[in-house]
Every structure is written in structure tokens, then in C-alpha cells.
Amino acid sequence: MKRLLIIALAITASASFFTADAAKKKTKKAAEAAAVEAPVQLVTSSDSVSYAGGMSLTRGLIPFLVQQQGVDTTYMADFIRGFREAVKAGTDPKMKAYAAGMEIAGQVRDRMLPGMTSDFTDSPDSIVAALLYRGFEDALEADSTVFTQAAAETYFRQKHEADMAAKQEKLYGPNRDAGRKFLEENAKRDSVVTLPSGLQYQVLVKGEGEVPQATDKVKVNYEGRLIDGTVFDASARHGSEPAEFTPQQVIKGWTEALTMMPVGSKWRLFIPSDLAYGDRDQGQIKPYSTLIFDVELVEIVKK
Fold it and tell me: Does the pTM exceed 0.70?
């Protein structure tokens, strides 16, 4: 009976505590709401300038928060609460450090992590977000239990290079091999000339004019294709006039060919990837692509 009485008293006391606590919270919340909803009083000109200035500072802020920060405007009250707390904290070093941590966390989560994850996709390794965050924190705390800072950077750099090479081979090795096979077969044709560099060309129209130097500006009509016949670019797409440039401004295969072609010539170039864009991705032109160009040298532009 005594035990039951003690329990009953405990329950009553607990209920009283929570009731009192709830009342305090309700009173605090009401006070905060009242403070927020208190009418603005602009007594002096300075008051009005200050208030209007504050409103002016928000111009473009909502689109920025939505587009650049990923803020859901449903939670603007929470954004305002964070703003108030930061303003209230002033120059408090703890608050500054906390706010900086929040900001950097957003950058790591929203920018750096997706970039690393994309890099390692289709490679032998992948990024585990929780461990990336843990490594980030341990480095800041100078925890060298697993890696020293220098060892971690060296290990990551070496693995990144090896994994990117493996990824390139997996994704674009077949493209490179198809280009090599195409050039091997193409070299057997009687009309095709293969140069020591690996560049191949076929004379469609034999010109009799001057041969440009690498620094001469030339006018050229051209059409570029992949070995499957896909046209990826042509001078006609950029207007009715020929393209103008110097041979030293273009890919190596073009530079070599243009400094051999007499004006009036039209050649078909077969360019291996190392004389074109190599391992770079150029949209339609994937890494290690062998390219075909029909090039007509119209004239050398005299200074």
C-alpha cells in the first residue's frame, strides 16, 4: 500500500512538472510570437532608412536561396530563426565556428561529394559518403590513427589516377580499338597516304596554289565525321563563309595537313585520336575517337 502511494505521488509530481514546464514553454513561445508580431515603429528618418534598407537587402535573396542553396521556401520561418540567432550571437567565436561548420558541410555535401562520386563511378572503387565525412573530420582533429594528412593525400591521388585510367579504358577502350582497326584497314587503300605521325590523307582535289605556313591565316571549308559516319561539325553550320584560323590554332592532325596542302586542294583526312582530342570528351567526340575530315583549303589570307 505504501509502495502504491509513493508511485501515485511520483506520478502527480511528474504531471505537475510537465504541466508547469509546458506552461513555461507556452509562455515563452507566446512572448516570442508577440515580439515578432509587434508593430514596427518608425519614429525618425533614420528609423525609416534603416528599415527600408533591410528590406532592400533581400532583393533577389529568395531565388538565390532556392536555386543556389536548395532552400525549400516552406521552411522560411526556420531560415529566419537561424538568421535571428546568428545576429543575436554577434561576434561570439563559438557561433562563428558553428556557422562556418554548417556552411562548409553544405559545400562538401552538395558540391564536393557529388563530384567525387561521379569521378569514381564506373571505376574499380566508389565513394562511401559516411567514411568521406569521417576522414574529413579526423583530418581536422589531427587524428592520424589510419593516415597522416600527407599519406592520405598521396594515397588518394595515386588511387584516383589509377581508377580514372581504368575507367577510361572500360568506357572508351572499345572506341580507341575501333579507331585503330579502322586506320589499319584504311591504310591498305591505294589512294590513302599514311604519314610517319600516323595521319592519313586522300587527295580529292589537287590544288596548285601556295602552301601555308603554321602562322598564316587560312580560309577553309570542312566537314567532320566519326568513323560511323556521324557528322559532328561543318563550316556550313557556322555561316556561308569559310572558317578562318591559323594552322597552329587547331588539332595536330589539321596543323600537319594544312601545312602540306596547296591552296585549291581538297583532302580527306583520317586523324588518329592522339593527333585529335586524345582522352578529352568533346560531346559527340568521345575520348580516343578517330576522326575523318573533308578539308578544302580556299585561300591564304594575306596581311
Answer: no
